[in-house]
Design brief:
This protein is α+β, with helices and mostly antiparallel strands. It has two helices and three strands, in the order ααβββ. 31% of the residues are buried.
Length: 137
C-alpha cells in the first residue's frame, strides 16, 4: 500500500486489455467452432493493443482432470498436436485465461470459467470487471 486510491495507469491498462481479450475470446466461443479460432480472437486482441502474445493456450477444458477431453482453446502450435482443431461442443466447460507482462511490475492475469451453451457461454461465477486495490490493515 503506497496510499494509492486507484491503480497505476500501466496496471489499469494491462487489466483493461486482458479483460477485453477475454471478452473477445468469449464472443468467439460457440458450438461448432475449432478451439484455435477462439484462441486467435483473444490473442489478436492482446497483440492489437501492443502486448506480445502469451506463450500458452487461451483456455482448456475443465473436467475430471485439468486438460480432460475436448478441444484446447489454443494456437495451432506443434506442442498441441492438432487438439486445437477439434470443435467446441455445447456442454463443454472451459477456462478463459491469459496474461500480459507489465514491465517492472509483474504479470496481469485473469481467469474465468464458462459453460458453453447453444447460444454462447454462461459464466460459472461473476466475472471480475475491475481491479481491486488491496490495502494494509
Amino acid at each position: 500500500d503506497d496510499g494509492e486510491t486507484e491503480p497505476p495507469p500501466d496496471v489499469q491498462r494491462a487489466f483493461n486489455v486482458v479483460y477485453g481479450a477475454i471478452n473477445a475470446g468469449e464472443a468467439a466461443l460457440k458450438p461448432g467452432v475449432p478451439g484455435w479460432q477462439v484462441d486467435a480472437a483473444a490473442r489478436q486482441y492482446i497483440v492489437d493493443h501492443g502486448y506480445p502474445e502469451y506463450m500458452h493456450a487461451f483456455g482448456h477444458l475443465l473436467g475430471r482432470t485439468a486438460h480432460d477431453g475436448a478441444t484446447v482453446l489454443g494456437p495451432r502450435w506443434e506442442r498441441y498436436a492438432g487438439i486445437c482443431d477439434m470443435l467446441v461442443e455445447a456442454g463443454n466447460v472451459f477456462t478463459l485465461e491469459l496474461h500480459v507482462v507489465v514491465p517492472n511490475r509483474g504479470i496481469m492475469s485473469l481467469e474465468e470459467d464458462v459453460l458453453v451453451t447453444e447460444d454462447g457461454v454462461e459464466y460459472l461465477s461473476t466475472p471480475q470487471t475491475e481491479l481491486r486495490l488491496i490495502r494494509d490493515a
